[in-house]
Specification:
single chain; about 325 residues; alpha+beta; Jelly Rolls; 2 domains; 6-stranded antiparallel β-sheet; 7 helices; about 25% helix; about 25% strand; cytoplasm; Cupin_8; JmjC_dom; HSPB1-associated protein 1; HSPB1-associated_protein_1
């Protein structure tokens, strides 16, 4: 893992973008976001700003198991950030609230993957608190970002993102990232169940691996980084990652940066979606909720999946044609 930049704004936006696009290993950028208003977005501040708005929290058990705690195995509640903070502090008022069935000592809670554009749709001025222009992406703000708020122990199972590379800003608390290179894919026992478009999960609980079931996991090379407030992590394309909150409350903001390689990945994902939906529907049409990740609302029809595939293939050929004509222009 490279830690880059220890002085004030060590990189110009142009240089930062060059690094983001070129680096093939994770990197932590320091001192790049000191003037971002988003650094004030701790849970208390967000609770005041959102003023009673409810968001969905995913709840998982703090007990350490040999298998990953996939999102299909978690519980879900809708609550305000005020209720969430009261529960995380162990306040008695929580005995009757949305978290009343979940003892804080036994459960963690995670409001993950929340689109900032949706949360702040009536407060668009907040989008400008996030300034990805400093990393060479002018015009990219909170509108193209997602928000993650969790308690200690909250985690995302080990997975890779099919599209883009990822920039992650830590705002409050610390998160520990376990990152694995694309070359470790076969050692991580990839699976498409639970199915989520754009995510490939690992069958291994990398924080507590079952080496009898998954002996090849021994061959992986983990890059472990603890991300602190004010730091920005670059997760390069197709790097596997398991992420856990290690402080009582954590807040982070991320944005996925589109890449040219995404056009091909969209074709692969469209084929996968068509096949998984076809096989699972044939298996048991009523058994949708077990194999679909909660982020995927419903299994779509075969016709819709084929339309999706058709669009992905068309877009891929269009991009190929555009890049070929660009190359021809530059060579002439």
């Amino acid at each position: 893992l490279f830690y880059v930049g220890e002085d004030v704004k060590p990189f110009t936006p142009e240089k930062a973008k060059e690094l983001v696009m070129a680096l093939q290993q994770p990197a932590v950028f320091c001192n790049m976001v000191g003037d971002w208003p988003a650094l004030r977005w701790n849970a208390e501040h967000l609770s005041a700003v959102l003023d009673g708005k409810t968001i969905q929290f995913r709840l998982g058990l703090k007990t350490v198991d040999l298998v990953p705690q996939f999102e299909t195995r978690c519980s879900y509640v809708k609550a305000t950030l005020k209720e969430f903070l009261a529960w995380s502090c162990g306040e008695p008022s929580c005995l009757s609230g949305p978290f009343s069935c979940y003892e804080y000592s036994k459960y963690w809670a995670y409001a993950d993957y929340k689109y900032i554009a949706r949360i702040f749709e009536d407060r668009p001025e907040f989008f400008q608190d996030i300034r990805w222009a400093d990393f060479g992406f002018p015009g990219r703000s909170g509108k193209e970002s997602t928000l993650w708020i969790g308690t200690e122990g909250a985690n995302t199972p080990c997975h890779l993102d099919s599209y883009g590379c990822n920039l992650v800003l830590q705002v409050q608390g610390r998160k520990r990232w376990h990152l694995f290179p694309p070359g470790d894919t076969s050692f991580l026992y990839p699976t498409r169940i639970p199915y989520e478009e754009s995510s490939v999960f690992s069958k291994v609980n990398v924080a507590n691996p079952d080496l009898k079931c998954f002996p090849e996991f021994r061959n992986t090379t983990a890059h472990v980084a603890t991300l602190s407030p004010g730091q920005v992590l670059l997760v390069p394309r197709h790097w596997w990652h398991y992420v856990e909150s290690i402080d009582p409350i954590t807040v982070s903001i991320n944005s996925w940066i589109e890449l040219d390689a995404d056009h091909e990945a969209r074709v692969e994902e469209a084929i996968t979606r068509t096949l998984v939906c076809a096989m699972k529907s044939a298996e048991d049409p009523s058994d949708g909720d077990v194999w679909l990740n909660p982020t995927e609302v419903e299994a779509t029809s075969h016709e819709i999946n084929l339309q999706y595939l058709n669009k992905a293939v068309s877009a891929y050929f269009k991009s190929q044609k555009a890049s070929m004509s660009a190359q021809a222009c530059s060579s002439s």
